[in-house]
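stuck on this:

***
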Amino acid sequence: MPHRTTIWTHRVRFLEEWALPHWATFTIWNAGRQGRRLYRSLTAGSRCKVVAFCDVDENKIKKGFYCYEDSQERPKPRVPVLHFRAAQPPFVICVKLDLTGGAFEDNLRSLHLQEGRDFLHFS
């Protein structure tokens, strides 16, 4: 059985080869563990396309940015963290479905976006 990190790596590569080339920029929906992990897993070229993270967690939004501390770049990349309503599509969504009692799904639906064009699920 493939190891979880192998599956993750293949999923990231698939995202980079098939979806991200069609987007000049994108937002990662989830400034938590999964969203940050995706950001760190992207190639430098794909990371440059990330214009923001978005979330509903006031603490993450209040901090204002995510700093990629392990980056070799100087200065270290700092990516804004916005409330989801202030963020611009397209989104790569790193939120597991059915974990928020429908709150996430309601938030996503409220934006009237089209899956495949305006967002992709990556969880």
User: Anything to note?
Assistant: The mean pLDDT is 95. Residues 4-101 form one domain. DSSP finds five helices and six strands in the chain.
